[in-house]
């Protein structure tokens, strides 16, 4: 779980979207989906799964419209892991 904090896929996803490189964006969100499935991060898995499907079907606008929800889900996981880590260190 703590290795998730070091994973760069989300940052690379944002950069790919900014550069309108949707092939790479699809690859990075697919990576996020796989990690979330392995770690049982259900909400982030669902939003990344939806975005992956939209990229797969070349529905770039729909995929981009999902980014706010994916970001919210991502940061919720990051915050929870950080909070747990701080609690564990006390």
Unreliable stretches (pLDDT < 50, length at least 5) are none
* Assembly context of the chains: single chain
On the 0 to 100 scale, the average pLDDT is 96
Helical amount:
over 70%
Q: Which percent band covers the strand fraction? A: under 5%
Largest sheet at a glance? Answer: none
Secondary-structure-based class equals mainly alpha
Q: SSE order in H/E notation?
A: HHHHH
- Number of alpha- plus pi-helical segments: 5
Q: Based on DSSP secondary structure assignment, what is the total number of beta strands?
A: 0
Shape: elongated
Separation of the first and last Cα atoms: 18 Å
What does this structure look like?
With 90 residues, the chain is mainly alpha-helical. The chain has five helices and no strands. The chain has helices spanning 9-18, 22-39, 42-56, 60-65, 67-89.
């Amino acid at each position: 779980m703590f290795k998730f904090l070091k994973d760069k896929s989300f940052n690379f996803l944002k950069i790919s979207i900014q550069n309108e490189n949707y092939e790479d964006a699809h690859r990075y969100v697919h990576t996020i989906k796989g990690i979330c499935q392995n770690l049982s991060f259900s909400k982030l898995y669902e939003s990344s799964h939806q975005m992956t499907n939209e990229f797969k079907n070349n529905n770039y606008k729909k995929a981009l419209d999902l980014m706010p929800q994916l970001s919210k889900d991502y940061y919720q996981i990051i915050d929870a892991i950080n909070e747990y880590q701080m609690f564990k260190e006390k």
